[in-house]
Design goal:
The chain has seven helices and seven strands, in the order αββαβαβααβαββα. The chain is of the alpha/beta class. The longest helix is centred in the C-terminal third of the chain and has 23 residues. The chain has one domain: 3-Layer(aba) Sandwich (Rossmann fold).
Length: 203
């Protein structure tokens, strides 16, 4: 297979993964559009009640958490953060364990009614599973983003669960980022009446 053929195959496979995204509530599948309605409503209410959105993830998912938490507060006006500070991570990993690097900050900073985005390509990362468990104990709403195996444990832990049926890190990470961006842009466009399509036109 040459590069041209690979590129065509890659993009076709990506479209198939995107089209096959599954969203569930209480182990029941709902449509993507209904999931967007629910997610935007959660973000809208969090903003109205001055609640926070906390995003956690490892590696590429940490990058998504950092990027999108900034977009949520800078562009969306929603209080949002990601626990990716290097001193925080190394301190908790050293003094407690890496499995607690997100659950401990959530335990400390979460208020009832906050939202926690738990992002894990595999849905198996112990520190993300612990974060989801702690978020539940703290009275937070949990939105999960996972991929790889259909029966991954994270997929059953959220109030709203987005699952990408792909074993490609690239596909899963890109689609997670796309979904989280779509939630924000849907809020901006439909609730805040801001043009997310043409706001940056050079004229």
């Amino acid at each position: 297979m040459d590069i041209s053929q690979f590129t065509t195959n890659y993009l076709n496979s990506f479209r198939q993964a995107l089209d096959a995204v599954d969203v569930s509530v209480n182990n029941k599948t709902i449509s993507f559009s209904e999931a967007m309605i629910q997610a935007v409503e959660l973000i809208k209410q969090a903003q109205k009640l001055n609640k926070k959105v906390m995003m956690v993830g490892n590696g590429g998912s940490a990058g998504i958490a950092s990027h999108m938490s900034v977009d949520y507060w800078k562009n969306g006006g929603v209080r949002a953060t990601a626990f990716n500070d290097s001193s925080l991570l190394t301190c908790i990993a050293n003094d407690l364990s890496y499995a607690e690097v997100f659950s401990k900050p959530i335990e400390t900073f979460a208020d009832k009614g906050d939202i926690v985005f738990c992002i894990s390509s595999s849905g198996n990362s112990k520190n993300i599973l612990n974060a989801a468990e702690q978020a539940g104990r703290s009275g937070c709403t949990i939105i999960t983003f996972s991929g790889f195996a259909k029966e991954n444990p994270l997929r059953k832990m959220g109030n709203l669960n987005f699952y990408v049926p792909s074993c490609s890190y690239g596909f899963v990470e890109i689609i997670h980022n796309l979904i989280i961006h779509t939630i924000l842009d849907a809020k901006l466009y439909c609730v805040d009446k801001k043009d997310v399509f043409n706001k940056n036109l050079p004229y």
